[in-house]
Amino acid sequence: MAVVCALVALVALCLPLTTDTTSAQNTTATTQTARTAAAEDCEAPEKQTLSPSSADGDTIRAIKNREGEKRKLIVGVDQNSYRWGYRNPNSGKTAELEGFDIDLVHRIAEDILGDPDAVQFKAIPTDQRIPAIKDGRVDMVVRTMTINCDRIADVAFSAPYFKTGQQVLAPKSSPVKGYDDTLAGRRICTAAGSTAYSTLEADKEDGGLPASTDISTTVPNQLDCLVRLQLGEVDAVVTDGALAASQAAQDPTVQLKGDAFTAEYYGVAMKKDADDLVRRVNQILVDYRKDTANGWQASYDQWLSATLGKDAKKSEPPAPQYLRTS
Question: What is the pLDDT of residues 32-45, one digit of tens each?
Answer without folding.
Answer: 555 444 445 688 99
